[in-house]
Structures are given as structure tokens and as C-alpha cells.
Design the sequence.
């Protein structure tokens, strides 16, 4: 009995010992597991928990203004009313907001489906549009609604549960002096998928509803203007109600961009460009006997010393307000309609025109740097080679004249002969291994045939033809040309058989030897025709380099970036592209010849009555012939003393008639405004400010007199001044036929 | 049943010693065991408070509602513990069948329309005025006490036996299995799988520590395993109960259901780190991401807000409680007392491991509260009665730490 009892007691005691070990083992297991979860892999859970319960609410930053050289806003923001939808409240309704959406759609003139599409959360399988922001944030569905619409939402809250009418900032174009400047300023549009993902990759906050600069200065300086949106991180509970603020970063408003654009000169330039177009259309083209179409035109005003753009206008243009609050399909179609002249395109830096005789400054530079003198040249009525004849404009002839006079009267045959000689030196049709090609080389040195690097997106490079380019074009194109040579142009033949025949003959010629740089190519390149194309901006830059003593500047519109409270963020100093490979004597000769042109040459009619003794002017005209079209009117001029500022104005009007007849008076008017000549107070120092506008620390812009209408000149005490430039017609007052 | 208190006093229970023992009873009172239980309850009060401050749908606007209720439960529990520890063995044994029958009737009542369903388990009897009882909790006490009585009855005469009995005869094993099986069966019908598991584990503990031979234990284990397999194969278990078993290891199996609970629990605990986010600062807790956080998942509050340090502190308090219980069992010189202690320790140990284990994702999810810590009156009262039982055994134990035969 005792041993059995003892065995039993031992068994119990042993089992209690086992229980103790078991309990300790189990509790140790818990501690081990706890250590694994909290210490070993805790960071993973902390990240996952943050994703679980922290929501990000974004407060948009106010976009910076774009200011002119005096601090007048060209673009700023205004308050507008917008409608947004709090999805949680909307969906909480009995019918999941269907009735509300229907009412909203009826009011906004859209469909309930379109609104609900904008409200759905973006996900890989969800098609656009969709909302990629926080579900906690009201989703904007209509910007810039009318006061009436906003009020009906706000006052009939029971009809529109979850719909919020609130203030929003939208882009405004204050348009001092009613200027347009649409192509310079650019516009905004909602962020694209690509921008969203690249912003996300950089750790920036960007939402689908965010607007991004899409063209013009808005695009180039977008990163400065945009600012940084504020981010509030809110801890939310399981049903999405905010519990507490975890982190709060206030928005940093965008910086202002101060530009070198002067609102007054810009307005004058736009007005004068319009006048030039009107002038052209009032004249009849001798080419086809119809009024000039003047389908497009542009003017560029540069500060020659700095390359800064003072004004830049293009026509046709458009109202930049069409972009505000989202552009409609119809409006966009109108902006890109070719029949309407593609108003979206800025002719000033995206339009390419034959420079005509304005190119002769480049040809002259090439001559003087390549062994040709300034002596006597034969201005014969025509220049012939191998059965081809190249005539002067309207067949005029001056006989033996100096090179200066050849420029002043724009005698083409002088330059034909020089270009032919240069072509022969290079080996003619069978070129030497490394042909000098002095004219094309000089054109490239003047920055032609390449983008200027202006701080605007989408610039056109222009084109300068040389031997290498002809060959490479032929390599790419001769298959097409040869097919055309065989098949002709049946699609053109129906409406215009003559044109079709001409095109086919060109195609035949190109098919056979389109790779060869023929004497004809060389000869007409000397007067800026044939294949050579320049933008008005490039043309202005060429003459700016001549005006400033041989430094090619990179054109620039942005002058400085300043914070909303006036602190300088980034100065944008002038950028030198290069020194021209042109000697001082060549430049002096050019200046002399251009001054001669403005005073006693082809450009003189435009400057009748100009105070040349106070502010000398320099100019060159151009009237480029384009096959199948009316002539392109080109006029480029600069004015200013050696010590004061010098401003270059270049104007080109497609199918616009002669350079001096159409563009000349307008260019002169712009120069008058730049130097105060129009107000009867000619000032060699010009009328533009030199210092940056001072923005007060409280964010107030400089107080300036209202810029509503352009200043008008005082009553003329004397008839001098405007007679020669303002009321000129067709070709009557030009003393000599010009090119 | 006639009960003679004198029979229970064993060889050392001489009349002379009796007075001395009564005098020294308070000196023998073990403070560590109720101290640990009290500390756990106060710790639990803080966690429950933190978990329920923001749950206005539960608190009715009073952030301290659950804190107050928990502390009130604690006070009642302490009173119940004191009362239980004062009863003599005779009263205890006499009360056992009464308590057992009451618990049995209450369980039956739950099955009638008197019962209320919460979280898929038809386990509550709502008394009104915000009070309700969960009979399954009291059934745990009833089964531990009842089995201790059954296992110490003399097999032939039917009178009370003591630890001198040689072995645990099959008839007594059968009686014990029956006594545990009836309430377990009812609890399974509710269904409240968690409480049923606690009772089965306590029953197993009582049988093991009563000295049942390995052969019989193996037989019983095999039978239980066969029953478990049959239950799953014959679809006797409710769907969500099977899901809970399947999803504990891999929350992705059932991310919206049980897996959600475990994933959120693990997220809350894991994000706590070494020192935690600070009491009341747990984002997962304040965000009410973890379901049932004041009751079954209360440990997640400690894990998130007090971190590894707080979690280990809680586990350490349980270690003190359980080891103290075992050591009182070992010091006990009568089988009844030892079995009561061992049964209660088995119960607490299983609940602790299962409850914390399920929040940590190493045990299946089952509706089992964390003793003293989880909010809940019935669980609190039953647990303090259980502590009172161990204290009672301690007070009546005469032997020093080691029993010599």
C-alpha cells in the first residue's frame, strides 16, 4: 500500500513539476513571439500601420505671378467659385447619391455618369478620369462656376448633400493696356499620368486636379511658379473619420517670375503688328493680283545688350482665358485649326520664314571675313549662269556701286555674284573635301539654323541649307521624290494642274540630283531665299549681335524669380552664346551700311522725321519671294546710341508685301515707343526701367498708375514725326523699289 | 450527501492544531497570488480604458464608462475572492454540487430565449440595467470544483476519499469525464468553442494531476482527438469556427473575416516596437482597427501602446500568478486542494497562452478572455473566485513546502 501510495504521490508531484516547466515554456514562447513581432520585424508593422491609419490631405499652394519689368502682373490669380464633392457624404445617401448627381449634372450641363467618373478612385483597372487624391478630400468637379450655381448648391443643401461650393484660385490675365501675350505666357492644364508618376518618384506631392504649366513661361518656370502644396497627415479611424493631426506642413506659395517684357511695349508691338497686317491686307499683291493675305505675322523686340525679350507678338493669336477652368473641345479645335492659321502657334519663335534681304547682313559678314572687299561691285539687272538667270527685285539696276550702297539699295545681283564665286571656290558641283561654305558657316555662327535657347518651350530651329544638309535630305527623301517624279501629284492636279506639273518637275529634278548643291542654291542663299528659313526671334538676335558689337546673346524672357514677399530667389543674368567670328571693322562697316539703309536706303521711308541726330537708327528691309505664295515682308531695325540701350525690332509678315511698305512703319512706331519719340520726348536712354521692380515684404506689388489704355502722344506742334511712318500706303512713298 | 468537516482534516487535523491554525490563518494568507491578480486587473483597467475611450457607440459618450465598470468588477471580484477563501473545505465541497447545478441550469437557460447572441455565440443572459452574465465562465469554476470533488470521492462507499487512495479507478475517470462532458456539450451548442476548450483543458489537467495512469490518459487523448476529427468532418462545428482555425496562421486566407482580426491585431502589436507608442497614443487602437479590443483582443492595446516592455511585464505578471498557483498546489497536503489548484492553474495557463497567442498569430482565434485583464464581469468574477479557491487551499494547508510520506 505504502509503496503504491508513494508511487502515486511521486507521479502527482512529477506532473506538477512538468506543469511548471510547461507553463514557463508557454510563457517564454509568448515572449519570444512578442520579441519577433515588435523588435525583430517591428519596422515593417510600423510602416504598414502608418499606411493603415494615416491619410494625407493636400492644401494647394497659390501659384506665383508673372510680372513685367515694372512689376505689373501679366498673369496672377483670382478667386473663383468651384464645386467639389465630399464622396463620403454623397454616397451615404439612400440612393448612393444618384439623385444628387442627376441634379448636379443638370445644373452643370453634363451627365451624372461624367461626374461620377471623376469621383471614382484611381486604381490600375479604373479608366480615366478618376480621382487620385485622398478620399478624405473634397473632389473638385467644376471650377469657375457662376455665382448663381454656387448659391443654389450652398442654399439648397438638402438637394445637394456632399456638394460643397467654395472659393478656389484660378489663373487670371490682368492684361495691362489690353495686351494679349498669350504665346509668351502659356497656359495650365491638369497634370498628366506621366507627370504624376515622375512627381511621385521625386517624392513631390501632385494630384490629378493639380494644374501644370503647359506652354510658354508657365511651362518653363513651372517649378518656381507652382510652389509646394501643404500636406496635413491625419490619423483616421477604421471608418475614415479624422482622429488627430499627425503632421502638418503648410503650403509654400509659388514664387513670382519677373520678366523683361514691358507691358506698354508689348501692347504697342501687338497693336503695330495688327496695323502691319491691316496695311498688308489693304494692298494688292503684284504676284497674283489679290490683296495680301497676311495670314500670319510676328514681331520680336530685343534688348541688344542683354538679349532680353522686351516684347514679342504673334498673329493670329487667341484669348488666353479659354484655358481657364479647362478648355472645351471646340475651343481647342479652334486653336489648332490650320484653316484659321493655328492660333496656338507663336510665329515669333515657332514660325519659320524666308528672311529675304535681311539675310544680307550675314552674307556681308561672310564676304568681309573671306577676302571680299568693300569696294565697287556691279549692280546689274540680272546674273546668269548656265542658262539660268537670277534677276534683281523688279529688275532694277544701279551699275557699279560700293558694297555699302549695295546694302542700302539691297542690290541682289551683287550678292548673287559673290555667292557664285564662293561656290566655285569650294569646287562647284564637285566640292573639295571640306568646303568653306562661307555664307552657311556665317549663318550658323549668327545662330541661324539652330534653336536660340529662349526660355520658352517648343522653339523652331529654322533652317540653313548647305551641302551636307542637301545630301542628308536627299538620302532620306529621294525614294519619295522619285516615286512622285513617276506618279506626279494627282491629288493636286485636279484643282491646280499648273502647280501639280511644277511639283512633279521639282520632284524629277530632286530625284536625279537633289543631293547636289547647285549654283542656283548657292546664288539665292545669298539673299535669304531658297531653302533658308529663320524665325523672327532668330532674325532679331542676329541684328542684336551686330548692334551690341558682336556678341550673340541667348534670348531670355525671365529676369528673376522672387518670393511672394519680394526676396530674390534666382537672378537670371544675360547669357552669352558666343562672340561672332567677325572683326570689328566688319561690324563697323555693317553698322554704317545699316544706318545708311535707314537714312538714305530702302528703309528710309519708315524713319522719315526720326531724330537721327539724337538716336541713330539702323535697319534692313527684306521682301522674300516664296513659290506659290505672296511675298514675305521682313523688316528689322535697331536704334540707340553707343552708350545707351539699343533695342532691336524684327517683324515678319507672311504673304505681307514689301518689307518697308508693310512692316517698316510698324517697326518704327515700336522704336518710337521704346525711346519716347512718340511722346515727343526722344531719350537716348530709352523709356524702360533698368532695375528690378521692388516687391514689398508684405507681398504688395509696386503701386503703378493704371495701365488701361496706351498713352497717346501730345497734340503735334509740328507735322514732323508721324507722317512718314504712320499713314504710309502700298509702295507709293518708297523712293525706290526695294527688296 | 452528509458532510462531516472532521473527515476532511486528514491526519494532522487534530483539535489542538485546529485552533492554532485558525489563529495563524491570516499569517498564512498568500499575498503574492491575489497581488498578481489585482495588478493584472488594474493593468487591464488601463488597457480597457484606452481601448474604449473613443468607442462612443459602446460607451454612450462617457469615455470612462468601461474603466469604471472594470474597476467595479474588480471590487466585486475581490469581495468574491475574499469570501471564497474564507469558506472551509466542508463548505466548499458542500457548495460544489450546488454551484455545479446552478451553472448547469444557467447554461440551459442560455439555450432558451432568455439567452442573447453576441458575436455568433449565444452565450449571454442579459439581466437588464446593463448587466449580463455569461454562464460559461462560472461553468469553468463549477467543473474545476466539481471534478475535484468527484475525483476525491471514495469509489466503493461513496464517501469522501483523500490523497491516501492508491489510484484513480476507471469508474471515477468515467464519472469525471461525464461531469465535465455535460456542461461542455451544452457550451458547444451555444456555440462557445473557447470556453469548451478551457473546460476540456482543465478537465485534462485535473485527471493528470489526480494521478491517472498514462494508459488511461492516452486513451482519453485518443478519444478527444477522434471526437475533434469527427466534429470537423461531420460539420458539427459552425463555419466561422473552422475558419478561425484555418486563418490564424495565414491571415490572407480570409482577409475580410477572421484574418482581418488577426492581421489588425498583429499590425497593432508589431507597430508598438520596444517601448510602444505610449498609453492612449496607439494609432491602431484610437482608430478602432482591432475588433473586440477591450475583451478578447485587449493584449493588442498593451502591445501597441506599451510595446515589448509592456507586453513582457504583463506576461511576467501571469508567470507570477501561475507559478504561485503551482507552488501552492505542491505545498498542499491533500488531494482535493491540490486538484483545485492544479485545475485553476490549467485553466488560467491555457486561457493566457491561447488569448495572447491568438493576438500574436500563433494560436487559432477563439473567444477566450485574458483572465483579469479583459473587460467582462463574468470572466472577472469567475477568475477571482478561482483565485479565492487557491487561497482557500493555501490557508488550509498545514504542510511546509515539501510533503513527506
Sequence:
Amino acid at each position: 500500500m505504502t509503496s503504491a501510495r508513494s508511487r502515486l504521490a511521486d507521479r502527482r508531484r512529477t506532473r506538477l513539476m512538468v506543469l511548471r516547466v510547461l507553463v514557463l515554456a508557454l510563457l517564454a514562447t509568448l515572449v519570444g513571439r512578442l520579441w519577433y513581432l515588435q523588435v525583430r520585424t517591428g519596422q515593417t508593422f510600423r510602416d504598414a500601420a502608418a499606411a493603415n491609419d494615416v491619410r494625407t490631405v493636400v492644401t494647394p499652394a497659390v501659384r506665383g505671378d508673372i510680372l513685367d519689368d515694372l512689376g505689373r502682373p501679366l498673369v496672377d490669380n483670382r478667386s473663383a467659385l468651384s464645386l467639389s464633392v465630399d464622396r463620403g457624404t454623397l454616397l451615404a445617401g439612400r440612393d448612393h447619391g444618384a439623385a444628387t448627381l442627376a441634379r448636379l449634372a443638370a445644373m452643370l450641363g453634363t451627365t451624372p455618369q461624367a461626374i461620377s467618373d471623376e469621383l471614382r478612385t484611381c486604381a490600375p483597372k479604373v479608366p480615366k478620369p478618376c480621382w487620385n487624391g485622398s478620399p478624405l478630400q473634397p473632389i473638385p468637379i467644376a471650377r469657375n462656376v457662376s455665382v448663381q450655381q454656387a448659391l443654389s448648391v450652398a442654399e439648397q443643401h438638402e438637394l445637394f448633400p456632399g456638394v460643397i461650393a467654395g472659393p478656389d484660385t484660378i489663373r487670371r490675365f490682368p492684361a495691362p493696356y489690353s495686351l494679349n501675350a498669350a504665346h509668351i505666357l502659356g497656359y495650365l492644364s491638369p497634370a498628366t499620368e506621366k507627370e504624376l508618376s515622375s512627381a511621385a518618384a521625386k517624392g513631390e506631392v501632385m494630384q490629378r486636379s493639380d494644374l501644370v504649366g503647359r506652354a510658354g513661361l508657365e511651362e518653363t518656370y513651372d517649378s518656381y511658379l507652382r510652389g509646394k502644396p501643404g500636406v496635413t497627415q491625419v490619423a483616421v479611424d477604421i471608418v475614415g473619420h479624422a482622429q488627430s493631426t499627425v503632421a502638418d506642413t503648410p503650403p509654400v506659395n509659388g514664387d513670382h517670375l519677373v520678366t523683361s517684357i514691358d507691358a506698354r511695349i508689348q501692347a504697342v508691338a501687338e497693336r503695330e503688328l495688327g496695323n502691319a497686317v491691316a496695311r498688308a491686307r489693304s494692298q494688292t499683291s503684284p504676284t497674283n493680283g489679290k490683296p495680301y493675305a497676311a495670314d500670319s505675322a510676328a514681331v520680336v523686340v530685343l534688348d541688344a545688350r542683354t538679349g532680353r525679350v522686351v516684347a514679342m507678338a504673334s498673329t493670329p493669336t487667341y484669348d488666353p482665358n479659354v484655358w481657364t477652368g479647362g478648355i472645351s473641345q471646340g475651343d481647342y479645335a479652334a486653336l489648332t485649326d490650320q484653316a484659321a492659321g493655328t492660333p496656338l502657334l507663336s510665329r515669333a519663335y515657332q514660325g519659320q520664314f524666308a528672311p529675304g534681304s535681311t539675310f544680307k547682313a550675314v552674307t556681308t559678314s561672310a564676304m568681309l571675313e573671306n577676302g571680299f572687299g568693300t569696294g565697287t561691285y556691279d549692280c546689274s539687272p540680272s546674273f546668269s549662269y548656265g542658262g539660268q538667270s537670277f534677276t534683281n527685285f523688279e529688275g532694277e539696276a544701279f551699275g557699279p556701286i560700293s558694297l555699302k550702297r549695295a546694302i542700302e539699295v539691297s542690290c541682289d545681283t551683287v550678292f548673287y555674284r559673290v555667292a557664285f564665286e564662293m561656290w566655285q571656290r569650294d569646287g562647284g558641283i564637285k566640292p573639295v573635301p571640306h568646303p568653306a561654305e562661307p555664307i552657311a558657316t556665317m549663318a550658323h555662327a549668327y545662330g541661324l539654323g539652330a534653336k536660340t535657347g529662349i526660355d520658352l518651350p517648343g522653339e523652331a530651329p529654322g533652317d540653313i541649307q548647305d551641302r551636307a544638309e542637301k545630301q542628308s535630305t536627299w538620302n532620306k527623301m529621294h525614294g519619295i521624290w522619285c516615286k512622285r517624279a513617276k506618279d506626279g501629284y494627282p491629288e493636286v492636279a485636279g484643282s491646280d494642274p499648273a502647280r501639280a506639273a511644277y511639283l512633279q518637275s521639282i520632284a524629277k529634278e530632286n530625284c536625279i540630283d537633289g543631293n547636289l548643291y547647285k549654283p542656283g542654291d548657292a546664288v539665292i542663299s545669298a539673299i535669304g531665299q531658297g531653302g533658308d528659313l529663320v524665325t523672327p526671334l532668330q532674325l532679331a538676335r542676329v541684328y542684336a549681335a551686330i548692334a551690341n558689337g558682336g556678341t550673340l546673346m541667348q534670348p531670355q524672357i525671365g529676369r528673376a524669380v522672387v518670393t511672394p514677399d519680394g526676396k530674390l530667389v534666382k537672378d537670371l543674368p544675360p547669357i552669352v552664346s558666343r562672340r561672332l567670328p567677325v572683326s570689328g571693322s566688319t561690324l563697323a562697316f555693317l553698322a554704317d551700311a545699316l544706318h545708311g539703309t535707314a537714312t538714305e536706303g530702302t528703309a528710309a521711308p519708315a524713319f522719315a522725321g526720326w531724330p537721327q541726330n539724337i538716336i541713330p537708327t539702323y535697319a534692313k528691309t527684306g521682301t522674300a519671294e516664296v513659290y506659290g505664295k505672296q511675298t514675305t515682308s521682313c523688316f528689322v531695325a535697331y536704334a540707340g546710341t553707343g552708350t545707351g540701350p539699343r533695342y532691336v525690332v524684327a517683324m515678319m509678315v507672311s504673304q505681307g508685301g514689301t518689307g518697308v511698305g508693310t512692316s517698316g512703319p510698324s517697326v518704327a512706331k515700336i522704336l518710337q515707343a521704346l525711346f519716347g519719340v512718340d511722346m515727343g520726348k526722344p531719350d537716348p536712354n530709352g523709356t524702360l526701367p533698368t532695375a528690378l521692380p521692388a516687391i514689398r515684404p508684405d507681398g504688395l506689388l509696386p503701386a503703378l498708375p493704371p495701365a488701361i489704355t496706351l498713352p497717346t502722344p501730345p497734340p503735334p506742334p509740328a507735322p514732323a514725326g508721324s507722317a512718314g511712318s504712320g499713314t504710309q500706303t502700298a509702295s507709293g512713298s518708297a523712293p525706290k523699289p526695294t527688296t | 450527501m452528509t458532510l462531516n468537516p472532521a473527515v476532511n482534516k486528514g491526519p494532522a487535523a487534530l483539535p489542538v492544531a485546529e485552533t492554532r491554525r485558525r489563529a495563524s490563518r491570516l499569517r498564512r494568507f498568500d499575498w503574492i497570488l491575489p497581488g498578481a491578480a489585482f495588478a493584472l486587473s488594474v493593468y487591464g483597467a488601463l488597457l480597457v480604458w484606452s481601448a474604449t475611450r473613443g468607442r462612443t457607440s459602446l460607451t454612450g459618450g462617457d469615455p470612462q464608462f468601461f474603466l469604471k465598470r472594470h474597476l467595479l468588477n474588480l471590487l466585486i471580484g475581490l469581495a468574491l475572492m475574499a469570501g471564497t477563501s474564507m469558506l472551509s473545505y466542508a463548505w466548499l465541497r458542500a457548495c460544489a454540487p450546488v454551484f455545479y447545478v446552478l451553472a448547469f441550469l444557467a447554461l440551459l437557460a442560455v439555450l432558451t430565449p432568455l439567452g442573447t447572441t453576441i458575436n455568433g455565440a449565444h452565450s449571454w443572459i442579459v439581466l437588464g440595467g446593463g448587466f449580463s452574465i455569461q454562464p460559461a465562465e462560472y461553468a469553468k469554476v463549477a467543473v474545476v470544483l466539481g471534478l475535484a470533488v468527484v475525483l476525491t470521492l471514495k469509489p466503493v462507499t461513496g464517501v469522501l476519499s483523500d490523497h491516501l487512495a492508491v489510484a484513480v479507478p476507471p469508474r471515477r475517470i468515467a464519472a469525471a469525464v461525464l461531469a465535465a462532458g455535460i456542461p461542455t456539450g451544452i457550451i458547444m451548442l451555444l456555440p462557445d468553442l473557447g470556453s469548451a476548450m478551457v473546460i476540456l483543458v482543465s478537465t485534462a489537467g485535473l485527471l493528470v494531476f489526480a494521478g491517472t495512469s498514462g494508459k488511461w490518459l492516452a486513451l482519453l487523448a485518443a478519444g478527444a482527438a477522434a471526437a475533434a476529427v469527427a466534429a470537423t468532418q461531420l460539420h458539427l462545428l459552425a463555419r466561422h469556427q473552422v475558419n478561425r482555425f484555418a486563418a490564424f496562421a495565414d491571415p490572407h486566407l480570409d482577409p475580410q473575416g477572421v484574418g482581418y482580426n488577426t492581421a489588425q491585431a498583429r499590425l497593432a502589436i508589431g507597430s508598438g516596437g520596444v517601448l510602444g507608442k505610449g498609453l492612449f497614443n496607439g494609432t491602431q487602437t484610437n482608430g478602432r482597427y482591432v475588433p473586440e479590443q477591450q475583451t478578447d483582443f485587449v493584449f493588442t492595446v498593451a502591445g501597441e501602446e506599451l510595446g515589448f516592455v509592456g507586453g513582457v511585464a504583463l506576461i511576467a505578471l501571469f508567470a507570477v500568478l501561475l507559478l504561485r498557483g503551482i507552488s501552492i498546489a505542491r505545498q498542499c497536503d491533500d488531494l482535493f486542494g491540490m486538484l483545485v489548484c492544479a485545475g485553476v492553474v490549467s485553466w488560467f495557463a491555457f486561457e493566457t497562452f491561447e488569448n495572447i497567442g491568438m493576438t500574436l498569430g500563433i494560436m487559432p482565434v477563439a473567444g477566450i478572455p485574458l483572465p483579469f485583464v479583459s473587460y467582462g464581469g463574468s470572466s472577472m468574477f469567475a477568475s477571482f473566485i478561482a483565485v479565492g479557491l487557491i487561497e482557500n487551499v493555501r490557508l488550509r494547508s498545514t504542510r511546509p513546502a515539501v510533503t513527506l510520506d
Residues 263-343+579-726 of chain A form a domain with the Beta-Lactamase fold (CATH 3.30.450.330). DSSP finds 24 helices and 23 strands in chain A.
